[in-house]
Amino acid sequence: ETDEKSSIGFAIAGPDGDIPFIEEESLDDVHTYHYEPKKVGRYTISVLFQGTPVPDSPFTVNVTDITKVIVTGPGVNGEAVPSNKTLCLAVNAKDAGLGGLQCKLLPIDQKEA
Question: Which of 42, 55, 52 is closest to 12 using CA atoms?
Answer without folding.
Answer: 42
